[in-house]
């Protein structure tokens, strides 16, 4: 888990400072990037949940719990976001620094890019959350809900309201969302995040 | 205006799935539910606004408005929930989550519910939506204009609505249109959070 967290921090600092970052910047990135904070708190809470179920109260779970008692309020203040502990998030995921993220899918595949003001959750009154594939690009102001699956390399256009299954490498958009285009390679979109993006973003999981 | 304590009690019990709750449970709900905190500050502001007409309350009003101003400032800065005093929110309201919520120049009946990024009414329009009882408004939805929504209307997540809708209608899409009759009673009382039930074996293996 610590390795995952430091990999996330390296990705965010590489995007922010393409020419390298010293130890001070690498420490500050946790405060400067709300998206990284969301990612970090999610990974910690996921680990806490698993350890708590398997081993009960140990020194690790108590420590994680204390860290999360600090982390979740910080998440609200700094990123206006909330995340579910059950989500499994892959490597090299980039969450926007714009905040307002409400993320409760079952899984987010590696290399996925999620913009600000995105809600991913269950349909009201149901229990099944969406499954997000790898290398997905989700535009700002999107809502994704229901027992659906997004394939690998899907592009969700900004402002979409999506509650249907999406096959891999498809573009969806609109409110309610429809399939706009098939066989679209979104690596260019994911690269457009920064003009000097770290290649790890594109490598995927 | 109904009694302040009745309104507050209805709001808290709505958060606790309409069970009779002990004081401790109420305090726990208040700590956990950020929307409830915002709603209680709004109720306090409405109480102060009503106190203008009572001569006996006047000495207390300045300190009340000062407290209210500080609380509203904190709630806007920290949670980004804006429940203006020009909105008339009925008892037993439920604010799900936080962030980007605006309710202004509108009227909501009893037992309404709305979520994050929801906008009800607009600052520039003096007469906003008149919304009936038991209306469920999804996340990222926007409702504006001098319109009427009947009782039990369901506005789907992300819908944009500036036309009236009859009772028990389901409104979907942008521009919002009524698709069918829908009974929203199953989704009204449930308190829906992002937390899922215990995870699948797959997540256990990956953890």
Q: Any chance you could write out the topology, listing elements then pairs?
A:
The complex is a heterodimer of chains A (205) and B (207).
Chain A: H1 2-16, H2 23-32, H3 34-55, H4 59-79, E1 82-83, E2 88-89, E3 94-95, E4 102-103, E5 107-108, E6 113-114, E7 119-121, E8 131-132, E9 137-138, E10 143-145, E11 149-150, E12 155-156, E13 161-162, E14 171-173, E15 178-181, H5 187-191, H6 200-203
Parallel strand pairs in A: 1-4, 2-5, 3-6, 4-7, 5-8, 6-9, 7-10, 8-11, 9-12, 10-13, 12-14
Antiparallel strand pairs in A: 14-15
Helix pairs in contact in A: 1-2, 1-3, 3-4
Chain B: H1 4-15, H2 23-32, H3 34-51, H4 61-79, E1 81-83, E2 88-89, E3 94-95, E4 101-103, E5 107-108, E6 113-114, E7 119-120, E8 130-131, E9 136-137, E10 142-143, E11 148-149, E12 154-155, E13 160-161, E14 169-172, E15 177-181, H5 201-206
Parallel strand pairs in B: 1-4, 2-5, 3-6, 4-7, 5-8, 6-9, 7-10, 8-11, 9-12, 10-13, 12-14
Antiparallel strand pairs in B: 14-15
């Amino acid at each position: 888990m610590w390795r995952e967290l430091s990999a996330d921090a390296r990705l965010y600092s590489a995007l922010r400072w393409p020419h390298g970052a010293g130890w001070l910047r690498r420490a500050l990135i946790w405060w400067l990037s709300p998206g990284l904070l969301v990612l970090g708190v999610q990974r910690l809470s996921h680990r806490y949940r698993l350890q708590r179920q398997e081993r009960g109260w140990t020194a690790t779970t108590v420590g994680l719990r204390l860290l999360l008692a600090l982390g979740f309020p910080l998440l609200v203040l700094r990123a206006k976001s909330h995340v579910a502990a059950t989500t499994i998030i892959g490597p090299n995921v980039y969450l926007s620094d714009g905040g307002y993220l409400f993320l409760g899918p079952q899984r987010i595949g590696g290399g996925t890019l999620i913009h600000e003001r995105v809600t991913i959750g269950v349909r009201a009154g149901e229990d099944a959350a969406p499954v997000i594939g790898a290398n997905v690009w989700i535009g700002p102001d999107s809502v994704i809900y229901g027992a659906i699956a997004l394939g690998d390399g899907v592009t969700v256009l900004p402002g979409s309201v999506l509650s249907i299954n999406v096959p891999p490498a498809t573009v969806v958009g609109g409110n309610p969302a429809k399939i706009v285009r098939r066989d679209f390679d979104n690596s260019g979109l994911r690269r457009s995040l920064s003009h000097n993006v770290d290649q790890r973003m594109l490598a995927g999981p | 205006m109904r009694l302040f304590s009745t309104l507050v009690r209805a709001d808290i019990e709505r958060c606790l799935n309409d069970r009779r709750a002990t004081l401790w449970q109420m305090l726990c709900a208040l700590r956990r539910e950020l929307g409830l905190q915002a709603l209680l500050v709004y109720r306090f502001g409405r109480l102060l606004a009503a106190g203008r007409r009572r001569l006996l309350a006047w000495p207390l009003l300045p300190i009340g408005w000062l407290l209210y101003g500080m609380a509203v400032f904190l709630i806007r800065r920290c949670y980004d929930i804006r429940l203006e005093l020009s909105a008339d929110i009925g008892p037993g309201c439920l604010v799900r989550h936080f962030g980007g919520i605006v309710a202004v120049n509108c009227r909501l009946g009893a037992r309404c519910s709305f979520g994050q990024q929801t906008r009800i009414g607009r600052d520039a329009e003096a007469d906003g939506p008149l919304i009936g009882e038991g209306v469920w408004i999804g996340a990222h939805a926007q409702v504006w204009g001098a319109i009427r929504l009947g009782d039990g209307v369901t506005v789907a997540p992300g819908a944009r609505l500036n036309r009236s809708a009859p009772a028990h209608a389901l409104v979907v899409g942008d521009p919002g249109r009524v698709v069918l009759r829908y009974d929203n009673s199953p989704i009204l009382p449930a308190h829906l959070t992002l937390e899922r039930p215990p995870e699948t074996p797959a997540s256990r293996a990956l953890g």
